[in-house]
Design a protein that fits this description.
The protein contains ten helices and two strands. By secondary structure, the chain is mainly α. Strands 1-2 form a two-stranded antiparallel sheet. Helix 5 packs antiparallel against helix 6.
Length: 284
């Protein structure tokens, strides 16, 4: 009964516009969304600089999340590796960005025991943050379609996040993964999938090419990938007993908390497009 009452109270606050967490998320989105869209439209070095800033913040958050809360020599190396890989992608190509990232992950893993830490988490962090950053820059440079693909990707993740949050809080119901993230519900997952599919259909209609139903189906699958990315980060935070990766974004916590869906979806889209080059494209 207490759970039912709590869900009802949250739903009432959402309907009345008095949910403080939702309000904070909306205000954060109103600030961040125009900046992100403008930089994606510009592409080039403005996008590289934004991705580098986000990458640096995320690897710092990861190091503090999985380490001893101190930012030492290992954190400096992890940050430098991610930045080198990001800058190498537009200047030397994505392949060299990947080479730098993999070599840097191995270096971070080798240095970890010197700081009394397990070698796995520092290396995983470099790849977890760096791969999506490289994927975003590579996607933007796809001739003719890169800008639209990246805007669709971001809109898809944002819509999934908002749909899952609003529907989950309004309806509640059975928990999706109670041991990992007690706040996630199956109704929220459904809301995220429907929202993501809607973005896919709208993108196909707006582009005037391809099948709205086809891109909606692909977007629905990627909405699930985005939710898996959210759960993966939640699992890491639970592993280390941390609620939020940071406090930089009101309503979201850290940059990792805000971009966990993008971190999962961007490499997935890049991989599919890379594999399917010359075949049936993912993008209409």
């Amino acid at each position: 009964m207490n759970t039912i009452a709590a869900n009802g109270a949250m739903a009432l606050r959402v309907r009345e516009g008095r949910d403080p967490v939702l309000l904070a998320r909306i205000l954060s989105a109103l600030v961040l969304l125009p900046v992100a869209v403008a930089v994606v439209l510009l592409g080039g070095w403005p996008l590289t600089v934004l991705v580098a800033a986000a990458g640096a913040l995320m690897i710092i958050e990861w190091d503090r999340l999985c380490g001893d809360r101190r930012f030492g020599a290992l954190g400096v190396v992890q940050t430098a590796v991610v930045l080198v890989a990001i800058v190498a992608t537009p200047t030397a190509g994505a392949v060299w960005g990947l080479v730098a990232l993999i070599a840097g992950a191995a270096l971070a893993a080798a240095m970890a025991p010197m700081s009394g830490r397990s070698p796995s988490w520092p290396g995983i962090g470099v790849l977890y943050v760096g791969l999506p950053c490289i994927a975003i820059l590579w996607l933007r440079e796809i001739p003719d379609a890169g800008r639209d693909i990246l805007l669709w990707l971001l809109a898809l993740v944002w819509a999934t996040d908002i749909g899952a949050f609003v529907v989950g809080r309004s309806i509640g119901g059975p928990r999706l993964a109670p041991r990992v993230s007690p706040g996630k519900t199956w109704s929220g997952l459904a809301g995220g999938i429907v929202s993501g599919a809607g973005v896919g259909a709208a993108a196909a209609i707006a582009s005037g090419t391809g099948s709205a139903l086809g891109l909606a189906a692909i977007s629905a699958v990627l909405a699930v990938v985005a939710q898996i990315g959210d759960l993966a980060e939640s699992a890491v935070k639970r592993r280390f007993g941390v609620k939020d990766s940071g406090r930089i974004i009101p309503g979201h916590g850290g940059v990792l908390d805000r971009l966990d869906g993008v971190l999962a979806v961007a490499p997935a889209v890049a991989l599919v497009l890379w594999v399917q080059q010359g075949g049936m494209p993912l993008w209409p």
